[in-house]
Amino acid sequence: MDAQQLATFEAVITEGSFDAAARALHVTPSAVSQRIKALEQAVGQVLVRRTKPAEPTEAGQALVRLSGQIALLEREALDAARGAPAGGGRTRISVVVNADSLLTWFLPALVALPAEPALSFDIHQDDQDHTADLLRSGTAMAAVTAQDVAVQGCRVEPLGSMRYRAVAAPGVFTGFASTPMILLNRKDRLQHRFVNDPAVTPPIHYVPASAAFEQAVRLGLGWGMLPEPTVTGDLVEIVPGRHLDVPLYWQYWRMESTVLAALTSAVKQAARAALH
């Protein structure tokens, strides 16, 4: 497969369209289209769904990870050969993180990384039970996930557990069946796991942002599970002394990369300081 065609394919998937990929690569949309057609002819499969945003087909998903790995290794090889960051640009790192880790402990890991090589982070957010899906598709090269079984082609290392407390504003909680339950989104099952009773069907509010979720709990919209470090002020535990621990793992591409090794070290160090 042609390296230029693979790089163009990665740009289309990353940027979301042929026009955006053309701008990122400083070529014409016609050139992008020709390269994708040539790659699809070489593979013998349609690789890109021409949707908004553009998405890889099932056949294309197999090439998303390959194109990302080649781009990363090529960048590192050029840096090593030249003895300085290649071309003055930044190495793109795509990671997927659950919302509460992103809010509490993950970002300090990125700040702790060395200044060289210069990195450009593409951070995706998803529920910890679903973050590994982006590893499977090749969209992300590393993930904070609740899944302890390594995705094919990846390594997995334990990070520790994030501890959650079930809390509400004073006077709000009157019972699991009657008090509204606040969820981050429809993938969020933490509150249901804490209740652990399928017969309980309370009113539900969906608040799809971690900071807004916490504010909704503090304002008395309902009860919810908050990471222990954020349980401050006049919030009260609705079941005093009881908590829910969610084990987290770091999964990343199985490849010899100095950038991934440095990122893994920084993430593990940040996790040791913040998680149980």
UniProtKB/TrEMBL annotation:
Gene3D superfamilies xref list: 3.40.190.290, Winged helix-like DNA-binding domain superfamily/Winged helix DNA-binding domain
Segments traversing the membrane: none
Keywords attached to this entry: Activator, DNA-binding, Transcription, Transcription regulation
InterPro entries: ArgP, LTTR, LysR_HTH_N, LysR_subst-bd, WH-like_DNA-bd_sf, WH_DNA-bd_sf
This protein's name: Transcriptional regulator, LysR family protein
Positions of the HTH lysR-type domain: 1-57
SUPFAM superfamilies: Periplasmic binding protein-like II, Winged helix' DNA-binding domain
Organism per entry: Winogradskya humida
PROSITE patterns: HTH_LYSR
This protein's record includes keyword Iron: no
Recorded family membership: Belongs to the LysR transcriptional regulatory family.
Keyword Ubl conjugation: no
